[in-house]
Write a structure and sequence with these properties.
Low-confidence stretches: 1-29
CATH superfamily: ADP-ribosylation/Crystallin J1
Strand content: under 5%
Number of helices: 17
CATH architecture: Orthogonal Bundle
Shape: globular
Amino acid sequence: MPDTTIAPPTNRHDGTPGALVLPSVDGDLPYERVIPADRWLGCLLAGAVGDALGAPVEFLSLAEIRTRFGADGLTDYTPAYGGRGRITDDTQMTLFTAEAMIRGHVGKRLMFFEQQPGSVLQHAYQRWYHTQGTPWHRAGGSYAMEAEPDGWLVRVPELHHRRAPGATVLTALKGFADGAERGLLSRRINNSKGCGAVMRAAPCALWSEDPLDCFVVAAQAGALTHGHPTGFLSAGALAFVVHRLLDGADLPTALAEVRAELVTWEESEETVAALDAAVDLAERGRPTPEQLESLGGGWIGEEALAIGVCAALVADDLADGLRLAVNHSGDSDSTGAICGNLLGAVHGLPAVPPGWLAELELREVMERLGRDALVEFSPANPLEDPTWRERYPAW
């Protein structure tokens, strides 16, 4: 069933020692924010392009990348997972996050109450877990009330491929399927700060007209699988920044705003320090790949966010930023995806090289889902379409 309860208190202080306050959730319907289609589709598809660009070198050192591709490193798609332009678990989970945003908002409109979509996100990630080879009656947990999962996205055959999914995510979703409680900001299911929370968080920027609400939703989404604050706060930070970029802010302004929010959260020091390091490095000029590696390997949340941010800040254009973001000894697909989310939200879909789009796996699926999100998160009423609730059940 939908999550109708108010979310648990966050670690955000209201200024009173020991007191905690939950940021508000937008409740006035219809949704009045106008999301620019080119920026949102750019965010979604450029993130996938960055993921696909980085996938072949995810587990290679910088020296190995240069040995294989030359002094400039990887500059174009190269085969991975059986072809060029193939996505990984990063984009798979991003698509299920976007679907959860739509389904959660359908439920919010139908039931006329405020809710944050924690259980809707959990349900979405259990559907993704099913695509990784676990039968639905075992993968769905409490959501497996029907013989098969609902909605259209889970029925896309190409999503039913394992593309190096993160062990932390699989373990957390298996635990929920086996009866464990859902992870919350106030109920941490592990101590992981891996990048598996931040790399899927960009669609949470759609949820509300208020970027802080989007921050909280993305952090809650992250806490479903990653219990360390650095893991879920980096996810919240990405959603906040993407929200501001979609609304027309420039990247330095959005980063300054999210920093001001992050410092109000307990245990945010690592995430703040990583963003500061990224901005400082970018201000010194375009970094070499070796200098970019000073931000870390991208395997943990704040490092992946920092690398993606730094590459986006110094990029001459979207393609240039993605090439910089993936050429390092680390989690190249995740840093490429995050950089793509940011630059796509800044420059829009026309900035993505047409050749990369043409070869991108599941491009049509992404565009369909992205455009459906624009319909749902608009003053229009898609409930007039009799197939809408079949495509996007309200939980």
